[in-house]
Amino acid sequence: MRPALVSFLLVTAMLAGCSSPPASFYHLSADPSLTAATTRASSQPVIVGPVTVPDLVDRPQIVTRSTNNQVAFNEYARWGEPLKSSIADAIAGDLALLLGSDRVAPASRSIADAQAWRVRVDIQQFESVPGDAVAIDAQWSVRRFGDDNALTGRSLVREPVTGSDWDALVAAHSRALASVSRDIANAIARNPSP
User: Residue 174 domain-assigned?
Assistant: First the structure.
């Protein structure tokens, strides 16, 4: 073989060995196994948002806990959209199923309505331990526009991760958010429309 061809093949092999793995992007989703909590569909609109998350997880990388005092930022496993938006979308999808309503939307895609329920979710903890479990601590409130009286609650959820890959971790977070959504839907269902 010619020396130039050998050099080219050697450089190509070295560059291939140095390349980074491709990034994967994930989003949270509504739990399709949820069913309506009431027999009649809610006619009152529901707007989900704002959602807040701890600064530690408010980044594109999926943050995992390695030990009690150590976290890891995975550069190749990332959220496909801001985590706050993904959580609002998942909860809105869950509430639409639980309330049997097509009038549920995240705040980013809704129009203000004086009769709407406004759901605020403050995520206090959004912990991920691959191959083990996820934990969510969510404080939430539900109120009508212009009403100072809010229905409030706190949902503490721990959901096992049923696999060792990123898909299993994200699916566990989606299931955990479905539990939060159940609590919110029950609060709405117990309070009649004005």
Answer: yes
Label the pairing between strands 70-79 and 61-67: antiparallel
53 CB-near residues (< 8 Å, 6+ apart): 83, 84, 87, 123, 126
Which residue type is seen at 137?
A: D
Provide the number of structural domains found in the chain. 1
Angle between helices 166-189 and 83-99 (to 10 degrees): 50
Q: What is the pLDDT of residues 87-119, one digit of tens each?
A: 999 999 999 999 999 999 999 887 777 788 999
CB 90 within 8 A of CB 180: no
Give SS3 for 108. Answer: helix
- Tell me the one-letter amino acid at 178: A
- Please tell me the pTM assigned to this model: 0.86
Instruction: Tell me whether residue 72 is exposed, middle or buried, using C-beta atoms within 10 angstroms of its C-beta: 0 to 12, 13 to 18, 19 or more.
Output: middle
Contact yes or no for 95/37 (Cβ under 8 A):
no
Backbone angles phi, psi at 69, to 5 degrees: -120, 10
DSSP reduced 3-state for 118: strand
> Are 75 and 161 a contacting pair, CB within 8 Å?
no
What CATH number did the domain enclosing 158 receive?
Answer: 3.40.50.10610
| Domain interval for residue 89 | 3-189
